[in-house]
Amino acid sequence: MFMDKQQEYAHFDALGVSDALQAVLAKEGITIPTPIQQQAIPPILSGSDVMGIAQTGTGKTLAFGLPLLQRILETEKKGLIVVPTRELAVQVQAALQSFTFATDIRTAVLIGGQNIEIQIRALRKNPYIIVATPGRLIDHMKKKTVVLDKVGMLVLDEADRMLDMGFAPQIKIVLHALSEDVSQECYLVQRDAKLTLLDHVLRNNEGSVLVFAQTKYGVKKINAALQWMGYKSAEIHSNRSLSQRREALEGFKKGTYRILVATDVAARGIDVSDISFVINFDIPENPQDYVHRIGRTGRAGKQGRAISFVAPTEKNIVRTIEFLIKKPIEVKDYGHFKNDPTLPVIPATIHLQRGGPRRPRPTGAFSGSRRPTTGYRPGYKGSSTPRKPASTSKPHSHAPFSARSFRSRGPRMPRRP
Question: Which of 48, 70, 83, 299 has the greatest number of C-beta atoms within 10 Å?
Answer without folding.
Answer: 83
